[in-house]
Specification:
Length: 177
């Protein structure tokens, strides 16, 4: 990543994060109760490298982050090897899995593939600090929250694109900063 001087001090995490106002909402996974089929559809319909896991759609409270490739491998393995895992099986990222009602297929427990402490910043964090953290911790992505609610995501590429945009739009501001 380029030197932090390229950011004016006013650029905040909320200016760089996705989704933008006009974008579809963040694609998240809820920690209990999504079916294998629902998650396979999410994977097929999007190309994101990963998905935040939240307590519920209503709360948007962050639980962890799961990589797309780990989800794909785990679901494939479970379908092949784990007795009884089918499209309607429910997926759990929780510590404890509630007993499934009679006649329900066995659940699939995926807490093990989740990053339990993904890096987060608030929407008001200055981007020069975010860039520092990306560099020092070698992050690929970082989640953005407001009052504990998940708002968005910033990837390394988002930062690079934003820097390029600033450079194109207003070259003078870079000289003066
Ligand atoms: P990259 O930015 O390296 O291409 P991704 O493919 O994961 O990485 O993300 C592509 C774009 O989608 C980025 O702008 C990123 O901020 C956004 N994004 C990443 N994950 C999600 C998600 N789960 N829901 C919505 N947008 C996402």
């Amino acid at each position: 990543l380029e030197p932090k001087e390229e950011f004016s001090h006013k650029t905040l995490a909320m200016d760089v994060m996705r989704p933008r106002h006009s974008d579809p909402p963040l694609s998240v996974i809820t920690q209990d109760g999504m079916s294998v089929e629902e998650i396979e559809t999410l994977i097929a319909d999007t190309s994101y490298s990963g998905f935040p896991v939240v307590v519920s759609q209503e709360s948007q409270r962050l639980v962890g982050f799961v990589l797309r490739r780990d989800l794909i491998i785990s679901i494939e393995n479970a379908r092949q090897r784990q007795e009884g895992v089918v499209s309607t099986s429910r997926i759990f990222f929780t510590e404890y899995t509630p007993p499934q009602p009679p006649n329900f297929p066995p659940p699939l427990k995926l807490r093990g593939i989740m990053d339990l402490s993904p890096f987060t910043v608030t929407d008001h964090t200055a981007m020069d600090i975010v860039v520092d953290i990306f560099r020092k911790l070698g992050l690929r992505q970082c989640l953005v929250t407001h009052n504990g609610r998940l708002l968005g995501i910033i990837t390394k590429k988002d930062i690079l694109k934003h820097m390029a945009q600033i450079a194109n739009r207003d070259p003078d501001s870079i000289l003066f900063n």
